[in-house]
Design brief:
The protein is of the alpha+beta class. 36% of the residues lie in helices and 21% in strands. Helix 3 runs parallel beside helix 8. The longest helix has 28 residues.
Length: 444
């Protein structure tokens, strides 16, 4: 629904809303924000809400810390539950400088900038992510996670706590206008997935942030804990965020071509080629944590080899089968991102890579329909199948050499991410793990 300021005020008063949360994210995709009262809200709608950005990760230095959060009216939602006995609404904000200019450290602004480039080329960018997550018992910080169910892929048990909480989450999402396409149990015990109906990319990035918040809130209300950690359990599948994406020109899907073997247009093929060419460089954003690289290993369904195919789920990019009469559903599925990424930056970089493929007419490598996990190193080398970075350190190295990433994110976010991730890698590198103590301490 499209709102204007007066409609938002009327909704707030009619529904008895007492507080409005103003949300934004830091460069890591962590939700930030502040609450304002109804009496303050009229002023905020006109002039925004000032705040100190000096303590927000990747934002400004102390001497230039004044920033302004300007609510986006189209993101207005009322939470489906009371908080401390009061009705609460929320809005996402664009961050500006005191002079009203878009702030260079705002991830939402990065995505809007790339979407503007796509629009200038005649394209509208749609995304449909599949966000996976785990439910665990609340057994105290620092303790090993404990499953709440032992179900498997697509198991449907009404007596399972996880299934019941997932259903409640779907109801909560739908009640605030976040459309759900389907939900199901995933492969690992206690692992679940709720798929959102595809949307324009900015709206979907906002929805992804709401999704993560609602999943966690509903879990806590039911006495369990939800995590989007990419690989919380050794020996089990990790959680991914497969990203289905397409470009439209007006009402037509720019990726569709009827007489092609894969029903892919030249535009679609060049988009895939751009993603494949640059995917190593943008992996630091789509898989931004040390733990992300525990998931991107052979044998657990997560792709780690740079290839594409139609039926091949070991490929990095999959082309879902075309169904007659469903031309608008033609899309590509990038399978490497995980649900702990910053969706604004991830969508922006995926789109930027694809657009460069289109603009420069990148040739697309041959598809791979064989199981890459079963190939040895020499076979992969013969077929020129490269790999994603296998650690946060290697992802940083690929990222910092990329002109495409630097241009897309801007110098501020580009350099801030490198600094943040180098610190994370150093902390991880010097940590003495339980593995080392168990394997080396007894005999060295």
């Amino acid at each position: 629904m499209t709102y204007n300021a007066e409609q938002v005020r009327e909704l707030i008063d009619r529904e008895g809303v007492k507080y409005i949360r103003l949300y934004f994210t830091d460069i890591l995709g962590q939700l930030k924000g502040m609450s304002v009262t109804r009496s303050e809200f009229d002023e905020v709608l006109v002039n925004g809400q000032g705040f100190d950005g000096s303590s927000i990760e990747g934002f400004v230095r102390i001497e230039e810390s004044d920033l302004n959060a300007r609510p986006d009216l189209q993101t207005f939602r009322i939470f489906p539950w009371e908080i401390a006995g009061e009705r609460v609404a929320m809005m996402f904000c664009d961050i500006t400088t005191p002079h009203g200019d878009p702030y260079e450290g705002d991830p939402r602004n990065v995505l809007k900038r790339v979407l503007k480039k796509a629009a200038d080329l005649g394209y509208t960018y749609y995304v449909g992510p599949e966000l996976e997550y785990f439910y665990f018992k609340q057994n105290g910080q620092g303790n090993a996670p404990e499953f709440v169910d032992r179900a498997g892929y697509f198991d449907y048990g009404t007596i399972d706590l996880g299934a019941r909480v997932r259903k409640k989450t779907v109801v909560a999402l739908e009640s605030i206008g976040v459309q759900v396409e389907c939900s199901h149990h995933e492969v690992a015990p206690s692992q679940h997935e709720i798929d959102l109906k595809y949307q324009k990319a900015l709206k979907m990035a906002d929805f992804a942030m709401i999704y993560r918040l609602i999943v966690k809130e509903v879990a806590l209300e039911n006495g369990i804990y939800a995590t989007f950690m990419p690989k919380p359990i050794f020996g089990e599948n990790g959680s991914g965020m497969h990203c289905h994406q397409s470009l439209f020109q007006g009402d037509s899907n720019a990726f569709f071509q009827k007489d092609d073997q894969y029903n892919l247009s030249d535009t679609g093929k060049a988009y895939i080629a751009g993603l494949l060419k640059h995917v190593k460089e943008l992996t630091l954003v789509t898989n931004q944590w040390v733990n992300s690289y525990k998931r991107l290993v052979p044998g657990y369904e997560a792709p780690c080899y740079i290839s594409w195919g139609q039926r091949n789920r070991s490929s990095l990019i999959r082309i879902p089968m075309y169904r007659p009469g469903k031309e608008k559903a033609t899309r590509i599925e990038l399978r490497s991102p995980d649900p702990a990424c910053n969706p604004y930056l991830a969508f922006a970089l995926m789109l930027a890579a694809g657009l460069e493929g289109i603009e420069k007419n990148y040739p697309l490598m041959a598809p791979v329909e064989d199981n890459i996990f079963e190939m040895n190193a020499s076979e992969r080398k013969r077929r020129k199948i490269d790999s994603l970075p296998d650690s946060l350190e290697n992802a940083i190295r690929a990222f910092e050499k990329s002109d495409l990433v630097r241009e897309t994110l801007g110098e501020h976010i580009f350099n801030s991410l490198i600094a943040n991730k180098l610190t994370e890698w150093d902390r991880y590198r010097i940590h003495v793990s339980r593995f080392e103590l168990e394997n080396y301490y007894p005999w060295l």
